[in-house]
């Protein structure tokens, strides 16, 4: 039964949640393109980046008051959480869109610019021990909305308000703005390189190629997860973690990042080919995909809520080098807790 649930979890994440999340991101991203200073790319980028990162930082810093509110008023927590996740998701998309656009404006879209962005993103995230954050998205991440401590967002250095307000706020800022911007830089570099390398003259063929490679890599990670985790655990037992453990983690996270970016790029480009490019359609798709994700209790999967540290388990349920995917398993546990 456990194996069947895990298999179904991955199918839901790959074939249902991932397309819905990409549709939501694409719809809101296009709305921002059309509505926020479309004739002034630099100013539009600064506006959406500053607004998005500011709101994301504020919600991360205020997680303790939100958690207190949830404990005091448990009956209203669902409504507050839905609103919280909607605002944070919109802020994340705004921040990503602004940062991406600014890098396009100031560094260009040449292959060398893309390669430089990719290398800078990978190198800086490795130094921060935050490379895994680049792969924290469907189809390799799925968390239901009913999870306990729904307002809790882990920060890079795990600081708390009682450690000092200044220290806590700096940790929240670093975790949200710095690591978040580096993830955007990595994604933009890889995405732009794929645009240049995977049949650039035929968008449909390029999208199909990207989808095929991303799908194969995703399924490969699904199949290899158990074996890789055993190898990593064996390295810990023998004490050979300083080099081989870090190397294994880095390779895993790079493969996972490619998988997620390739799938997202493919779904985004396929939507560009079949969906009419208008404000009305973008609004309808954004609202519809967001509504379905809420019905599935998967709206938490829209933004990347919290920061994961390389080599550290994201939750007690998922050890290092495992995929943070739980749907039927988590829903069953939630129903058991309620009963």
From TrEMBL:
The entry's keywords: Membrane, Transmembrane, Transmembrane helix
Keyword Transmembrane: yes
Domain of life: Eukaryota
Membrane-spanning segments: 7-25, 45-62, 83-100, 112-131, 165-187, 207-224, 244-267, 279-298
Keyword RNA-binding recorded: no
Protein name: Putative fuseless
Native source species: Ixodes scapularis (Black-legged tick)
């Amino acid at each position: 039964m456990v194996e069947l649930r895990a298999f179904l979890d991955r199918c839901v994440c790959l074939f249902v949640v991932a397309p819905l999340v990409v549709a939501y991101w694409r719809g809101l991203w296009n709305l921002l393109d059309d509505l926020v200073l479309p004739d002034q790319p630099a100013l539009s980028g600064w506006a959406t980046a500053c607004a998005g990162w500011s709101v994301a930082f504020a919600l991360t810093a205020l997680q303790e008051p939100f958690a207190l509110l949830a404990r005091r008023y448990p009956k209203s927590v669902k409504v507050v959480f839905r609103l919280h996740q909607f605002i944070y998701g919109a802020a994340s998309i705004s921040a990503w869109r602004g940062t991406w656009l600014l890098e396009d404006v100031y560094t260009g879209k040449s292959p060398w610019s893309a390669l430089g962005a990719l290398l800078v993103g990978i190198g800086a995230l490795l130094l921060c021990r935050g490379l895994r954050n680049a792969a924290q998205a469907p189809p390799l991440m799925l968390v239901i909305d009913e999870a306990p401590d729904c307002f809790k967002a882990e920060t890079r250095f795990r600081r708390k308000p009682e450690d000092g307000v200044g220290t806590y706020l700096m940790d929240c800022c670093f975790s949200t703005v710095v690591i978040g911007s580096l993830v955007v830089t990595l994604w933009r570099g890889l995405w732009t390189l794929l645009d240049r390398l995977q049949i650039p003259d035929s968008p449909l063929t390029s999208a199909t190629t990207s989808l095929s490679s991303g799908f194969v890599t995703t399924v490969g990670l699904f199949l290899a997860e158990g074996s890789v985790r055993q190898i990593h655990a064996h390295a810990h037992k023998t004490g050979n973690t300083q080099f081989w453990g870090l190397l294994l983690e880095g390779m895993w996270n790079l493969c996972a990042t490619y998988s997620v970016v390739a799938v997202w790029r493919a779904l985004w480009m396929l939507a560009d080919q079949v969906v009419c490019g208008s404000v009305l359609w973008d609004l309808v798709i954004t609202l519809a995909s967001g509504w379905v994700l809420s019905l599935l209790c998967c709206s938490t999967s829209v933004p990347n809520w919290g920061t994961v540290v390389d080599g550290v388990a994201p939750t007690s349920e998922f050890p290092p080098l495992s995929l943070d995917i739980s749907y039927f398993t988590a829903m069953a546990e939630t129903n058991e807790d309620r009963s």
